[in-house]
Amino acid sequence: MQNELVLKNNQLETYNTQAEVEKQRVMQEVQALVLVAQKCPRDEVKAHKRIMDAAKRQTLAEGALYAYPRGGQIIKGPSIRTAETIAKYWGNISFGIKELSQNNTTKESEMMAYAWDLETNVRQEKVFKVPYKRYSKSKGLTNLDDPRDIYEMTANQGARRLRTCILGLIPTDIIEDFVKECEKTLAGTNSKPLKDRVKEMIKAFEGLGVTQAQVEKRLGCKSSSFIERHLVDLRAIYKSIKDNFQTINDYFEKEIAPVENAFDKQDEKDEKEK
């Protein structure tokens, strides 16, 4: 009994020592980050130019916006990729997502998303819980048991909060300039004819199980009448679905198969017999 008690005490001392060493390591890293930020402050003019140059990249511009439905309209905004890109070129910002704990009893994780401006010492932080469940209009709530599904759920929920934290530190005019520049890139740098790009976009949606008729109903006009603005909106919707931020049912109404009239069917049969 005494030996077991000594063993437990030794294990507790070892754990406390390791925790203290980890705490000191984190503190030293934080101090080093702050010191470097103070010695090398950002040049806002150069930072703005780098951000605008990044917006001229086609692949980056295509993922710059997200979209989600609300009140019959499509609400758009800068995506997590936009937030991360701006933070990188704005400089001296530490950001990330951490899983603080897992509760196997309540089937949820406690997460934290943060963004910290090392120059001004302004910090945005959000602590939240992510239940191991997924909701959709067609299936309702579904429990998640696969570790990969749980990871994707916590990562997606964390990315949403991280985006908010980062954008809370960046001047709004910088964000607006970046988004506008991305829209210019999408509208003006593609050498393909508009009708070909529309066909490619519709084909991409068909790969998700969304028909051309559903896309046209969403935008309220035929694909032959689509303009650049429609393509920008569709790219944002497509990205939101692909990144699991929203589901297909959140954007598109289900197609109702036409019900065959038994009398019409009989008339056709009679005509053939004649």
How would you summarize the topology of this molecule?
Blueprint: H1 2-39, H2 44-54, H3 58-62, E1 65-70, E2 73-78, H4 80-90, E3 93-103, E4 108-117, E5 122-131, E6 133-136, E7 140-143, H5 147-167, H6 172-188, H7 194-208, H8 212-219, H9 228-242, H10 248-251, H11 262-273
Helix pairs in contact: 2-4, 2-6, 4-5, 7-9
Structural account:
- This protein is an alpha+beta fold.
- The chain has two domains: 12-41; 42-251, no CATH class.
- Helices cover 57% and strands 19% of the residues.
- It contains eleven helices and seven strands.
- The strands form three sheets. Strands 3-4-5 form a three-stranded antiparallel beta sheet, covered by helices on one side. A two-stranded antiparallel sheet has the order 1-2. It has a two-stranded antiparallel sheet with strand order 6-7.
- A hairpin with a 4-residue loop joins strand 4 and strand 5.
- It is flat and about 70 Å long.
Number of helices: 11
Shape, principal axes of CA atoms:
flat
Relative helix content? 55-70%
For the secondary structure, the number of strands is 7
Order of helices and strands: HHHEEHEEEEEHHHHHHH
Poorly predicted regions are: 259-263
* Distance N to C terminus: 100 Å
| Overall domain count | 2
Summing up helix and strand content along with how strands pair, one would put the structural category as alpha+beta
Placed side by side, the strands forming the largest sheet appear as: 3-4-5
